[in-house]
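Record 1 of the preview.
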Amino acid sequence: MTESGSHHANPYAPPWPQAGQYPANPAHPYPAYGAPGPYPGQPPYGPPATKPPLRHVALTRSLAGASIVVYLMIAVFGFLTFATVTRNGESEGSTFNGWAHWTSQGEGLPLTDGSHAVIFPGVLLPLLILFPTALSSILIMCNVGRRPFAAVTILFGVIATAVATLAVVNPSVVVGTFDDSSATFIDANYSFSPGPSAILAVVIGIVIVMLAIGVIAFGGKART
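->
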């Protein structure tokens, strides 16, 4: 045991803090011995780090809103002529719109020899494929996952554009037949040419893809 006043230090006594070892309280005139400080490897005390702000919020919302408007225009343009059906050897043909309604004759394709066919709405499939793009645009307008949902819009936009392009190249894809003899009769006696409704569906798909690319380009976060 070490006697009082001995010059030998007690090896089991806790070390006393030295002056300047801990940061002083700036509001107190005296240095604060034993004041708690940050642990080793811990950042200094201060306000919590904030996330960088979003860039071009108004612009990305405008692009997403325009995408929704353009999507709805497919349904409106569906009332225009989707295709013209011309019997071989005749100059005048019959037309039907994107909602499968005949606009220049009565309902049904003029067939003979017991053939039967039905016209399907040409704008319906692009509308269904592009529906996820409308939902994604709503979320982008709410600043939720702007770039990821813009990528989803691009994916479905490309698929819808490919489907609409197929209807422009071969408008007869919207004609359904019930047997092989009816399909053979239509292919041998009728020709189909695309109308403005089919062409505008392709244009709308391209526009939606371009708007989504704009969201990805301008939808990042500000640099800190």
